[in-house]
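Technical appendix A lists one of the benchmark inputs used to test multi-chain prediction within the project. The record comprises two sequence entries:
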Amino acid sequence: MAAPELLSDEGYRADGRRPAEIRKVRARMGVFEQADGSAYIEQGNTKALAVVYGPHEMRGSRGKALPERALVNCQFSMATFSTGERRRRPHGDRQAGELALLLRDTFEAAILTHLFPRSQIDIYVQILQADGGTFCAGVNAATLALMDAGIPMRDYVCASTAGLAEDAALADLSVPEEAAGGPVLALALLPAGGQLAQLQLSARLHQERLPRVLGAAGAACRALHAVLDRVVRQRLREVAALLGD
Amino acid sequence: QVWQIRLDLHLLNHDGNIIDAAGIAGIVALCHFRRPDVSVQGEEVTVYTPEERDPVPLSIHHMPICVSFAFFHQGTYLLVDPSEREERVMDGLLVIAMNKHGEICTIQSSGGIMLVTDQVLRCSKITAVKVAEITELIQKALENDQKVRKEGGKFGFAESIPNQKITAFKMESTAVDTNKVEEQAEEIIAKAEPPSEVFSTPILHAPGTAQIGEGIENSWGDLEESEGEDTAEEEGESEATAFECQKMEAEDTSTMRETEDASAVKESEKDEPIVLSDSEEEEVVILEPQEVPKKTR
């Protein structure tokens, strides 16, 4: 099922990583002045941008406002230049709509929505370059953007993909690894309690192998959490320095 | 040139867990399907009709079966195969699709629930058990269908629908304790209010239709159509007069036969029914709005 070139004899992947190694993460918060919160993240070659507005009054139909909690409105958009072949529609197609729903499910559970009744929180995720794990990069960027906006959350939401090559579990798949035809597991984790906010698996995976792949994805999410936490603290220092003066 | 196959799913009744049901329906339909036989010789392609050569089945590698789990109370309670009521109040849903070899084909969690890894692993073990059962059921059904087709018996959709049976909204009979029935009945009668005043003269509307007693005031207000008031009348009779009504009805039917050819009589006689319509012909009595008094008869 998994192509042999995914893992070389010495145990290196096509891009020179070890099976459990995640790609290099570069992240920045507060990239836009106008939005309440914004963040930019690069995971290897995947580049994602997230912008958060809110909590604010319900736009559009006031009738849809929920009396006991805030409504989370998400949009997932992939730029026309993000993939190898030019995309015709950045958003509004079925795939983007489904990913937006998944995003909403993930964050509705993580944000403390009961603190903002009858209001709306908007999360817009834009993928600038897609090289595997676009949904997960979007989730990570959205987490940072929500932190930048100061919206209270239960915990960081860290997401990563994982796959299987022969018997070794691979973490953080790139596009050739995703397209190889093996199973692809996308996991969004709240690291403190080990809770899974989102779990998606495509392609066949034997039941016996599930714990291994879940473990690899979980470890990747925790590694990512360490990086994101560092970024947030750095940002906090920057902002404190700016305000302190 | 390739074959294109199209699967249409029609949902007839939604009582929860349509994902699982649709999945089973889909895979069984694909297993059951037969396509025309084809032979290829170099560049030439010959498609045989069903009469020339028996149609061949599709090559199905494996049968993925979905099993849904509903979570309640932040993952404390787990229900397999939720019904519609349970789906409405659940926190979230986890769908695991597996085949009989134990390979997970897909996992999807939705609804914003927080799961823990060992919950997911436990669910996958439960799924393995369920999928084995369901796959066996499917195999048996497919074999049965094949056998019946060969023997020439009845098969297909019409055969699978049970005849002369009401399969929906069936209520099981409940056992009733009749040990102390007499005592209970006497208690009820003792506590009950005395029956209200009864008018002993039944009014004959038409042969076979009589009215006993006065209805209660029509609480619907003024209605344009008289039909509405007619029905309000019939239902407005108090239950305490039921016993007396039975007696009246018995009397009524006997006197009816006597007065069958009588013309409309408006005078009331004690123990004599009041015939309001000509019973010779089928007459539809339409009450004019202005003729009906405020308090219905």
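Chain A touches chain B through 30 residues (CB under 8 Å). The two ends of chain A are 59 Å apart (CA to CA). Comparable benchmark entries are summarised in Table A2.
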